[in-house]
Amino acid sequence: MSSSSSALVEALSQYLSYQHIGAGLTALVAYEYIITFDLEVDSVWNRRFHGYICATYISTLDNAAWSNNSMAGVTNNVG
Predict the structure, then answer these.
(1) Is position 59 within any domain?
(2) How far apart are CA 56 and CA 25, in angstroms?
(3) For the chain, what is the domain count?
(4) Chain-wide mean pLDDT for the chain?
(5) Cβ neighbourhood burial of 65 (10 Å; 0-12, 13-18, 19+)
(6) The domain containing residue 16 runs over which residues?
(7) Ordered alpha helix ranges (H), the chain
(8) Looking at residues 49-57, what average pLDDT do you find?
């Protein structure tokens, strides 16, 4: 196997590892959210609206978007 082929295989392996890690973390966060949703409804949503709710969900969406953008850069290292 040539040097460029082995580098390509290594980059692909790294990319797939990142994809699996991302999928696993997404599943873990979704599972945690589902099992604690009733607690969130009782403690947050049944109260008067607060800025905390907006800050929490905007932060969560921002982190998700950042995580997807950082994973896209892995393919740029092949080369």
Answers:
(1) yes
(2) 18
(3) 1
(4) 76
(5) exposed
(6) 3-74
(7) 3-40, 51-72
(8) 68
Is pLDDT larger for residue 1 or for residue 35? Answer: 35
- Furthest-apart CA atoms within the chain: distance in Å: 64
Q: Which residues contact 77 (CB under 8 A, 6 or more apart)?
A: 11
Q: Is residue 18 part of a domain?
A: yes
Residues with Cβ within 8 Å of residue 8, at least 6 apart in sequence? 78
% of the chain residues with pLDDT over 90 = 9
Read off the pLDDT band of 68 (50, 70, 90): low
**Residue 49 token pair:** 């609206």
The residue to which tokens 């092949």 are assigned: 78
